[in-house]
Amino acid sequence: MHKVTPVLLAGGTGTRLWPLSRKSYPKQFSKLTGNHSLFQQSAERCVSSAHMTFSEPLIMTNNEFRFIVAEQLRRIGIGNYSIMIEPKPKNTGSAILAAAMHIARDDPDTLCLATPTDHILKDRMQFHKAIQSGLEGLEKRTIVTFGVKPTRAETGYGYIEFESKTADHAIKVKRFIEKPSSQVAEEMILSEKFLWNMGIFLFRAGDMIEQFNLHYRALLKPAEDAILNSHEDLDFIRLDSAAWEKMADISIDFAIMEKSKNLVAVPYHGEWTDMGTWESVWEQENISADGLVLSGNASAINCSNSLLRSEGSGQHIVGVGLKNILAIAMNDAVLVADKDSSQSIRDVIPLLKSKGINQAEIFPTDYRPWGWFEVLIEQKNFKVKRILVYPKAALSLQSHEHRSEHWVVVEGRALISLDSKEFVLSHSQSISIPIGSKHRLTNVEDVPLEIIEIQMGSYLGEDDIVRYEDKYKRE
Q: Is the separation of the CB atoms in 111 and 204 below 8 Å?
């Protein structure tokens, strides 16, 4: 049986799913539906089965997400993987080329499956059967793409057109159509020659490089330099920044798929959505007879055809008499929109950025390699945080020039290093950290450590940190 190397693309952002999806913590890492994040579900789909054999995955992501990726894989029991860090997001074209070049150094005939990590595919076995059909149709220099039969005249998706009617085996692609008008989409839905483009590609590593040589040669040299000058950083492969800066910000569709003459496509016979909008989230949930979806702490009176969702454990959202409404409540931001305007939510981000509002891009929970924190309250000269430290993890040895801190242990046991002394604190015990003191917080247990931190000082920004030692090699 052929063995396929998954290339998981996890570096993008989902602007139409604000406020849950933001630049600092995009949708692929959130639990939009089900018990696992979209990224975790994508990784689980690429675990071997009776129909498919996979090698360990290569994850393409950026510097800000590298520890989030590693932690989410650990939580679902995937321990063998490689993570390649893109110095800056450059879209799927550059990411897939870099992955192909890295893999081809060992064997250019290695079979690769490049897939987004922010989609929903509910039938894993059907997915593996589609890949197997793709392998049967994969000839030398051929690229296989995957599509799903359209169920509506969707203008937010790309389409694949064929010379003849679609079939269960790999068939030659005529062209790609990117996000058509409503009229064109209506015409295509009546034809049997179109599939929605899932953005998933099967190829030999060397063949993908050859496609770039034919259709987008300008990317080859900077990609080659980025790989050649890459280096290991802890458990990550860090691409060379100077070379990567010269890479074009271009999708794989525009760079290769719309130009290549060696494309075939295979249909996936299962439910699929790219989870690109809140309307698509609404479609995936348990919709009541009157079209109402309640998620989290939400209640409704006389509401229909609406999604009410609360992401805060201490926040309850109530809708009264709503029709065709999306209402998403988080601790720091609330979205209320007409469901028919779901595609326009992306316009929220530039609006908020023009007003200097942090919620445009900054997620309320700040994820770090050792755990995470969230700000509970912030006023002039003081800030209160909730901090969670993963088992056996530790913050850097650090000091602050402008603030003191007071720590109270809520759950677990904490080892505190304070200048030349060490203390072990348990539930309800506390300690004060003076301005300028070297200190470190370590979780000595096999369960998470949770503390409340109270900061006081003239400046409370996250950049007021002087690091002396850091196991994660952060500057």
A: yes
